[in-house]
Amino acid sequence: MTSWKALSLPPSDHELSPYTGYTRAHWEAVADHWVNVALSYASPRFSLFRIPGRHAWSGPESDALEGFARSFLIAAPRIAGGGDPHGFAEKYASGLVAGTERGGSEGWLWAVDCVEPLTGKTQPIVEAAGIAYALHISRAQIWDRLKPAERDQIADWLSHHARRIAWANNWLLFTAVIEAFLASAGYDTSAYDGRANVRRVESWYTGQGWYTDGSRRNFDYYNAWVIHPLLWAIHDMLPARDPDAAWLWENRLGRYLESYGHLFGGNGSPLIQGRSIIYRTATLAPIWLGQLTGRTPLSPGASRRLASGTLKHFVDHGVGVDGPLSLGWHADQYLDVTQPYSGPGSPYWAGIGFHGLALPADHPVWTAVEEPQPAETGDHVVDLDATGWLISSTSGDEITRVYNHGADHNTAGTPDDDPLYVKYAYSTHTAPGTGPAFAANVDGAFVLLDGEPSRRGPIVRHRVRGPVAGSTCVPREGASLTSVSIVQGPFEVRCHLLATDAATGVREGSWAVAGEDAVPYGLTGGVAWARRADGLTAALLPVHGYERAETIARADGNVLGAHMSTPAAFGQAEGVSAHVALHFLGRSDDVTVLASTMSTAARISVDGTAVRVEWRDGQTVTVDLDTFIG
Questions:
Q1: Which of 1, 35, 547, 614 is the most exposed place for a label (fewest CB within 10 A)?
Q2: Of the candidates 40, 29, 132, which has an alpha carbon nearest to the alpha carbon of residue 357?
Q3: How far is CA 60 from CA 52, 74, 92, 377, in A?
Q4: Are 242 and 384 found together in one domain?
Q5: Per-residue confidence (pLDDT) for residue 1, from 0 to 100
Q6: Model confidence band, residue 215 (pLDDT cutoffs 50, 70, 90)
Q7: 371, 405, 435: which is the final residue of a domain?
Q8: Terminus-to-terminus CA distance in the chain, angstroms?
Q9: Same domain, 476 and 407
Q10: What is the 3 state secondary structure string of 587-623?
C-alpha cells in the first residue's frame, strides 16, 4: 500500500526571486516530495523501488534497481546540503547494504559486458554510476558512516561494474566514474580502464564546450546530464590524477554554458530535442556545476532564475505533484518520447539536476536576487558551429528556437527515424510530431512526395556562420539536398537546393503548434498559419518554388497536446531546383496583422542558386546555396 499527500510548496518569495518566486525552500520541498513518493514503493530494506509503469527492456528487476539509484540522485544533494528531515541517509544506506548482498533477498542485478551477443543485463552499469555519483556527493553523511565490512561489500558490487566493457558512447563515463569513486575511497583500481575511457570521450569534443555522444552526430542533452557532470565528478574525486585534464574540462564547461544557457525559454521549458527528455530537470546539472566551479558566464542570480524557472515549469504542469514522475514531458505519460530502455524509475535521473542543494544555503546562488536568464536579456542569435545549430531567442515572446543542421543521431548510414533529432528546427514551445504524425512527416521537414514522404537522411556536412546555418543530406537514392536557414528574431528564411533524377512533388513543413484542444488554423493573404488560444502561432509564407500553402491538422502524435496544426507549402521539382519559404514562430493576436507582417518582414529574391534577404531593419544577407557549405 502506497500513500502520499500532493506536493505542498512554501509561499512564493518575489523579493528574492522576482521572476519565479522560488527559493531554496521550494527546491527542498520538491526534492523531499519526489523522494518520498519513490520511497513509498521501496522494498522493506529500501534497495528495490518497484515504481508502477511500463517496464524497460531490461525487465522489472533492473527497473527496481533503477528506482533506487536514480531517486538517490535527488536524495544525495538534499542530504549533503545540511538537511535530512526525513531520514533519507539511513534509508539509502540500508538499501546500499541490502542491494549488494550476494544472494540476498533484496539483491541487485550484476551487469554483463556490453558485447554482443549479450548474456545478461547491461543496465546496472548505468545505475552503479548513478550510485557512485550520489555517494560522492553524500560521502560524509552516508559512505563515511558505514561499517568497513559494509563499505567493502558495496565496493565489491561497484568494482564489478567498473570493470565492465561499456558501449562506445556516454556509457564509457559510467564505468570511469565508478572507478574514480572506488579509487577515491582507497580501493585498488590500477587495472581498470577509467582513464582510457575518459580520453576516448574527450576525443569526441567538437568545440564550444560540446561533445558528440559517440563518434557520430549525436548532439543532445547527454552533454548536460552525463558528460559534463560525470567529468566533474571524476576530476573532483581525483584532483591530483590529471590536473591538466581537470583544468581543460573546467574551461570547456565555461564555453558550454555560453551557449547552453540560451536553450531555455522564458517560460522555463528546456528545448524539446533529443532522446531521454523524460529526465526533465536533469538539464540543469551544468547550470549548478558552473556555480560550483566558478566557470560560468551566468551570474548566481541568473543561474538560479534559470534553474528555478525550469523546476517551476514542470511542477506547474503537474510533474511529480501527485504521484511518481511519469514517462513523459509534462504530467501525463507519453510513451512516444521514450525509448525501449526507459522504465518507471528512469525519469528520476532528473535528480542530477538537483545538485544545487549540495551547495550551502549561504552560497550566492541561493542568496542573490534573481536576474534575467539569457533568453530574457534581449533578442539573441548564437552561432554554434560545433553542433551545427543556430540558436535564436526572443525576449518578447520568451521563445528559444534551434535551427538544426548538425544533429541527426544517425548510427548506421541510414536515418534512425527519430523525430527528436532529424527536424530542421526545435523550440521550447513546440514539439515534433511523433508516432503516426512522424510517419506523415509534415512538421519541421522538407520531403519528396514520390510515394512515401522521404526522410531527411543523414547529414553529410554542415556550416554555421553568423545568422546563417546550412547542411547537406541525401533524402533518397538519386537525390541530394542542401538546406540553409537565414534567421532574424522570430523569422527564418528556409532555403533548399534540390537535385533529383526524377520529377517529384515536394512539401515544406513549419512548426507544429499543439494543444489539448483543436488548434485553429487557416490561410490569410497567402500565409498558412496555426494559432493556439494563448497566441502561440506558427506561420509559413511560400516565396519561391512552391505553388500553394495550407495548414495540416492532426489529432495524434504530440507530447504537448492531443491536437496539432502545422503550416506547410507544396510544390514540384525536377532536375535542380530552389525552394524558399519564410517561417514564423512567435505570438500573434491577429492573423490578419500577422499576414501583413509576414509579407513585409523581408524582401527576398532568388537568382539561380543565390538567395538575397533584406530584412525590414535593413540588414542584408546573400547566400549561394550551391557554395555556402562547400
A1: 1
A2: 29
A3: 10, 22, 20, 46
A4: no
A5: 45
A6: confident
A7: 371
A8: 63
A9: yes
A10: ECCCHHHHHHHHHHCEEEEEECCEEEEEECCCCEEEE
Q: What DSSP line would sit under 471-528, residue for residue?
A: EEE--STTEEEEEEEEEETTEEEEEEEEEEEEEEEEEEE-PPEEESS---EEEETTEE
Rounded-to-integer distance, Cα 546 and Cα 133, Å: 54
The CATH number of residue 437's host domain is 2.70.98.70
Residue 7 maps to a domain: no
The torsion angles phi and psi of 523, rounded to 5 degrees, stand at -130, 115
State which residues form the domain around 157. 24-371
Provide the residue type at 554 as one letter: R
Instruction: State the CATH number of the domain containing residue 342.
Output: 1.50.10.10
Q: Is the pLDDT reported for residue 399 higher than 60?
A: yes
- Beta carbons of 527 and 505 less than 8 angstroms apart: no
pLDDT at residue 110 tops 90: yes
Residues composing the chain: 630
Predicted TM-score (pTM) of this structure: 0.97
Q: Are 565 and 512 in contact (CB under 8 A)?
A: yes
Tell me how far apart the alpha carbons of residues 348 and 622 are, in angstroms, rounded to a whole number: 47
Asked whether residue 434 falls in the same domain as residue 346, the answer is: no
Q: Are residues 346 and 429 in the same domain?
A: no
Do 165 and 45 share a structural domain? Answer: yes
Domain ends where: 347, 371, 395?
371
